[in-house]
C-alpha cells in the first residue's frame, strides 16, 4: 500500500494502514540515525522550508535534521525574522515562498486550521508541525512509535493522558492516532482543561481522578502546563495542580510494572512531572526525542512521492 | 492469464547456488576477509543459502548481512506507490572486506547501482563482487555480475520471479510471459 496524501495536516485524516506505513518506515529509517554517515540520497535536490510562526527548538531542529539526513536542502524561516513582522499575510508569504519552488513546507502556526488554508493554496506538500490547539501529527506519530517499540503493538494498550487536554494539540493527535490504532485512551485533568464531549471521539474515557486514569496503564503521557498561557487563568495555583495532576513516584506505582512515562517536552519539572520521575528508568522522554527524527524523515519521504487526494 | 515457464526447479536452484559458492571460493582463494550482503528481500534469503553452502564446503561461517536500497533508488519522483522501506542490517564492518553482494534477478542494473551506493555509505570495502541467481539482460547501466546462476534471455515485457517457501528457501525460478 502506498501513501497517497500530498500533505500531512492531521492524524484524524489518516487510516490505520497509513499510520502503520508511516511507523514502519520510521522504524526502518531509525537505523540510518545510528550510522557513522547519517545520510541517504533519497530527497537529493528537494527543498524543504521550515516556516515557524511559533517558537520551537525540538520540532524545528528535528525536522531540519530529518530533511538533511535525507539529503534535502532545509531552509528555516522564523516569524520574528521574516516579513510577517511587517504585516505580510500567510497567503502572500505562501505565494512568495512558492515562487522559490520548494517541494515541502513544514509549518508551525498559532492558528488552528492555518495548514488546511495553506495546503489548499500551494502546489507543494505541506506538513503540519503544530497548529494552535488543533493537531501536532509528527508528535503523535513519534509517541506511537515509542509505545510500539516498547510493547510491540498499539492495539489494546491503555494510555493515560494527563493535563491540559483542551489546549493540547499533542493530546488531540495522540487521541486520534491511538484510537485509530486500537488503543484505549484515559484522560484526566482539571475540569477547566477538559473539553466537553471529548469521549465521543471513540475509545476515550474521561476520568475524574488522575489515579483512575493511571491505574493499570501501559503508558502515562503527561502534558506540559503552558505556564505562559493557560497556567495563569485556568488554575488556582501551580502547587494545587501539581498535587492533584502531577506525576510523582507514588502515583506511578498504580500503573503497570513495565509502564512507560512520556512527555512531549519541554518539562516543567516539579509541576506536571516530579524530577525523579522524569529521570527514572521508566521515562521514555529521550527516546521520544530520538524517534522524532526518524518519524519526520518518514513523513518527508512519503509526502514527496504522494498525490493530492480528491 | 500469464504463461508461466519454470526455468529452474528446486534442485536446479540448489545446484546453481552450490556452483556459485565454489566460484566465490575459487575467485577469493577461500573465505578470508569475505562477507555476504543480500539485497532485500530475495537477495537476503539467497545470501543466507550461499553462506550455508560456504560453511558446508569450507567449515567456516561467513558473516551475512542485508542491505535495503529503497532510500537509494533514483525514481522517487512521481512515485505514489512507495516500496516498503526495510532495514539495512550489517552486524559487521565492511571496511577493508571483500563483499559479495547477492541478488535474485539482475535486470536493468539500477538496483545494483543503488546497493553499491548504500554499501559505500557504510564503509570502504576492498572490493565488491556481484552474485545473482538469474541474469535476464536489458541493462540500463554498465553493470555485470561476477557470479551468475543462470543467464536467461528475456523480452522487456516478460517477468522473472524467484519463488521462496515459508522458510525463505528458494523453490523455483519462473518466467512469466
Automatic annotation (TrEMBL), chain A:
GO terms for cellular component: cytosol. GO terms for molecular function: amino acid binding; aspartate carbamoyltransferase activity. Belongs to the aspartate/ornithine carbamoyltransferase superfamily. ATCase family. It comes from the Bacteria. Catalyzes the condensation of carbamoyl phosphate and aspartate to form carbamoyl aspartate and inorganic phosphate, the committed step in the de novo pyrimidine nucleotide biosynthesis pathway. Its EC number is 2.1.3.2. Residues 155-302 form the Aspartate/ornithine carbamoyltransferase Asp/Orn-binding domain. Heterododecamer (2C3:3R2) of six catalytic PyrB chains organized as two trimers (C3), and six regulatory PyrI chains organized as three dimers (R2). Transmembrane segments: none annotated. Keywords: Pyrimidine biosynthesis, Transferase. InterPro entries: Asp/Orn_carbamoyltranf_P-bd (IPR006132), Asp/Orn_carbamoylTrfase (IPR006130), Asp/Orn_carbamoylTrfase_sf (IPR036901), Asp_carbamoyltransf (IPR002082), Asp_carbamoyltransf_Asp/Orn-bd (IPR006131). L-aspartate binds at residues 86, 169, 224. It comes from Citrifermentans bremense. Pathway: Pyrimidine metabolism; UMP biosynthesis via de novo pathway; (S)-dihydroorotate from bicarbonate: step 2/3. Residues 6-149 form the Aspartate/ornithine carbamoyltransferase carbamoyl-P binding domain. It catalyses: carbamoyl phosphate + L-aspartate = N-carbamoyl-L-aspartate + phosphate + H(+). GO terms for biological process: 'de novo' pyrimidine nucleobase biosynthetic process; 'de novo' UMP biosynthetic process; amino acid metabolic process. This is Aspartate carbamoyltransferase. Carbamoyl phosphate binds at residues 58-59, 108, 136, 139, 265-266.
UniProtKB/TrEMBL annotation, chain B:
Its EC number is 2.4.2.9. The gene is pyrR. Keywords: Glycosyltransferase, Transcription, Transcription regulation, Transferase. It comes from the Bacteria. HAMAP family: PyrR. It catalyses: UMP + diphosphate = 5-phospho-alpha-D-ribose 1-diphosphate + uracil. The keyword Glycosyltransferase applies. This is Bifunctional protein PyrR. Residues 7-149 form the Phosphoribosyltransferase domain. It is an enzyme of class 2 (transferase). Belongs to the purine/pyrimidine phosphoribosyltransferase family. PyrR subfamily. NCBIfam families: PRK05205.1-1, PRK05205.1-4, PRK05205.1-5. InterPro entries: PRTase-like, PRTase_dom, PyrR, PyrR_bifunctional.
